[in-house]
Each structure stands twice: as C-alpha cells, then as structure tokens.
Amino acid sequence: LLLSLPAVTSPCNILKCNSEYLAATSGSHHPGTEEVPEFCTALRAYAHCTRSTARTCRGDLAYHSAVHGIDDLMVQHNCSKDGPTSQPRLRTLPPGDSQERSDSPEICHYEKSFHKHSATPNYTHCGLFGDPHLRTFTDSFQTCKVQGAWPLIDNNYLNVQVTNTPVLPGSTATATSKLTIIFKSFQECVDQKVYQAEMDELPAAFADGSKNGGDKHGANSLKITEKVSGQHIEIQAKYIGTTIVVRQVGRYLTFAVRMPEEVVNAVEDRDNQGLYLCLRGCPLNQQIDVQTFRSPQATEGRTRRKGPVLPAAPEAFTYETATAKCREKLPVEDLYFQSCVFDLLTTGDVNFMLAAYYAFEDVKMLHSNKEKLHLYERTRDLSAGNAAPSRRPQALLALWAALLCLSQWWSVLL
C-alpha cells in the first residue's frame, strides 16, 4: 500500500533523524541495564523527529522502516512514550566493534548454508537504467513511464523502491532520481539496514552511517564498498547470495542486482508477489513502444514538437546521429543499443548513452548465463509471414469443400 503512494515533492528529513539518533546512541543497539533510561530518551527524541517529518515522508520506505523500528525498540526495552526527549550520548562500544568483526558464521553465507548438499543455485538479474529501461528477473526487457514511486523488489529479505521524475519540465521522459533499499533483519547475521541514494548524493554507507550489517555476529555478510566516489557503489549481501550495484551517471541513478531464484521467490503473500517491477515488469499502461522512435520521420516530428524537452537539452539528436553516438560504446545493436538511441532522441543528454553502457557492463558482471547478455526484440512480422503460407492452402481447401457440399445439396433439391 505504501509503495503505491505518489512521490513526495517536499524534502523528507528522515536521514537527519537517523543521523541524530546514531549520534545520540553512538551505534549501541543493545544498551546495558544502567543505560536503558538514556536509551529510551534517545528513542523518544528519534520518534519526535520522525513525527515532525511525517507529512513529507509519507511515501518514503526509509521513514516507515524507522517508525516501525522505533516501536519495536520501545517495546523491547520497556520504554515509555512519555518522558524527556533531550538526546544524551550513550557510552561508545569497546574497540573491535561490529565494523571490524571477523568472518561471518556459516549460516550467514548463502551458498554454504542453503546449498551445502545441493547444486549451485540459479541466479537471476534485474536492472533499471535510463529513461527508464527495465530488465526483469525473467530477461524481459521493457521501456516504461513509471513516474513517481514504484517497487522494484519486495520479498522476505529486502525491499527496493525507486522514484522516477521528469528529465525536463514538461517532458514525458523520466529517470530514476531516488533509490531506497531496506535489508530486513535476518537471524544472527544482520540488523535491519536502510540504504538511500538521491541525485547528486550516492553515499558509501547505510542511512545510520554504518558500512556493514550492524552488531550481530555475521555483520560482515552485508557490506558496502565504494568503487568510484560519488559514482559507483556495490553492496554485497552474502547471507542471501545477493549483489547490488548502484551508479550515478550524469544526474540520475542506475540499479542492477544479482539474486538467487530462491530469494526472489521467498514471499509470504504470493497473491501480491507480482506487484513489483523486477518480477512482473511494468504494467501495460506504463510501457512505451520504442519502435515508434526509430524512423527518421518520427525523429523529425519530435524535433518540431512544442515544449522545452529537446530545445532545453544539451544536444538535439537525429536518428542518424543518435545511432552513430551509441555505436561508440555499444557496437552490438541489441536492446541496450536501442535504449541508448531512444534516450538520446527523447532527452538529448549523452549521459544516457553512458547509462546504457554501464547497465550492460553490470549485466556482464552479474548475469549467470553469458549466452543471454544481449537481448533482441522478437521479429513478430517475420513469424507472421512464415505462418501465412501454411494457412492459405488450408483456407482454400475448406472453401472448396464447402462449395462441393453446396453443389451436392442443390443436385438433391433439383
């Protein structure tokens, strides 16, 4: 229900609330008996902060995660909702805390724990990039509108939500401006962690400032690694055999994930399993036919249309110049190449060419079936043409049989 809410345009300050709570507790999630009153005070201050930003955070997964987390901690430590809300600073953890833990236990390593006596698990891939283009876990490739907040992944282990906004005022082209990933608490491996990225802000840490799964013994089975500062991060969730890559290319974000089929299908409510994009794709009314953008005539029509879309863009591409530009990075004319052409025609921004290029680079790294790296459209016209000759003789034979029966019927009457 939360995922269907429209995107909130006002600033959501949940990250500020998270950081203030972290500063007050110094990362301690399991205070001693003597520290409980101070811990409860910090929780009440945290709750007060979330209430103050509730209106602007209605559709934000990190906000709702924080609210539920506060309620759970209140109950766990018998904290009263009434009381002081000044923010004392609890004692820090001793040296060798969760950020420097040793190797995780076996249960926190997916391939070791879940498949100890069976074959290697089947891995799937999902990616979202550009204007935006979606590759689902079943290798379906779509170009979508999906403006606002949409769920990408929703299973027993994690939730991923993206927010897509218009590239330019008045434009129908949208791109991903915000990404929220919630890793749910799992056994003795990880605490619940929230990662959130926005345009021009690609953190190399979770929302609470940590870079791993928290205070549990298997905390290092969830880790963030910064590959390129402000441009490329990678999240390894070994306890569920999952790798996530998030990039900022130009102003917008791209997302790619490698996940075992067992994790993909781990849902409690199977009736609602198809509500997220990576599994079922975009709704039909949100899909765009990119074929209409490939002819020179269509390109000329778009350059003449009213509105600020192309005139305000860095460069106005024709179909020929767009294809030439995309071939510089994507020599194979597959759906990634076609997506690149589509994005250059609709936005004029060469960064979308780089988004398609990096999306394919992520596929090469994450997809388990190297024969399915390139995707091509089905040739519907060719298949229909091949079927037509086989149907025509059958139709003529049926007509001849009908005429023969009719002639015999007339002969009986006469």
UniProtKB/TrEMBL annotation:
GO MF annotation terms: coreceptor activity
Protein family (similarity comment): Belongs to the repulsive guidance molecule (RGM) family.
One BP term from GO: positive regulation of macromolecule metabolic process
Segments forming domain Repulsive guidance molecule C-terminal: 122-368
Keyword flag Signal: yes
Protein name: RGMA protein
GO cellular component: plasma membrane; side of membrane
Membrane topology, from the record: Lipid-anchor; GPI-anchor
Annotated ranges, domain Repulsive guidance molecule N-terminal: 12-81
One Pfam family named in its UniProt record: RGM_N
Region: Disordered, residue numbers: 81-104
Originating species: Nothoprocta ornata
Keyword Glycoprotein: yes
Predominant location: membrane
Keyword field: Autocatalytic cleavage, Cell membrane, Disulfide bond, Glycoprotein, GPI-anchor, Lipoprotein, Membrane, Signal
Compartments where located: Cell membrane
